[in-house]
Amino acid sequence: MLSPQSLSETDRREVAVWAADCAERVLGLFETEAPADDRPRDAIARTRAFARGDLDAAGEIRRRFVAGRAAHAVSSPAAVAAARAAAQAAGVAHMGAHALGAAAYAAKAVGLAAPDRPDAVRDEVSWQLEQMTDATRSALRQLPPVGEDTAGPLGSGLLASGLLGSTIREIQAAIGSTSSQRSGR
Fold it and tell me: At residue 52, does pLDDT exceed 90?
């Protein structure tokens, strides 16, 4: 049985576009520090190709960790978060819940890059929500609330805690996640 965090392949292709948009928006934070490292940019391009149906899930599942390794090539926390946003976007081919991880890491990157702007994360989340299509919202509503299902990235680990967790909770509340509504959130 598949995890409720997986989503159908059609829904994963839909949310991949949004995840790529979120990650691409912060890509410059990584590239400023590591201009010759194309792993995050390539991951975003592959995510878009997967969304179009040009790449299959199996091939992308094998490559999903490449962009994440780029986080070790940079030192600023904002650049690390930007690389992780790209890695999460690439992971959507494997599991749709990674789209929320891409958005959360992108928002974190923005916040880290602008510590003098207390609303930077909230503004980024607002932008992310504005980019969602109805189909993206519908697909993301199928995901369980962050921290409640251990069979995937939205389990009790990194994406469920701290700024990442609060960002995902904010996104899920804003889209009216039916799973969140059932659990009283």
Answer: yes
Model pLDDT for residues 170-181, shown as the tens digit of each residue: 999 999 975 444
**Gap between the Cα atoms of 103 and 89, Å rounded:** 8
Q: What are phi and psi of 102, to 5 degrees?
A: -60, -45
The domain spans of the chain are 9-182
Nearest-angstrom CA–CA distance, 129 and 152: 23
Cβ 114 vs Cβ 73: under 8 Å: no
What's the distance, CA 123 to chain centroid?
16
Look up residue 70 and give its DSSP letter: G
Token pair 């749709």 in the structure block, residue: 96
How far, CA to CA in Å, does 112 sit from each of 20, 28, 88?
20, 13, 18
- pTM exceeds 0.85: yes
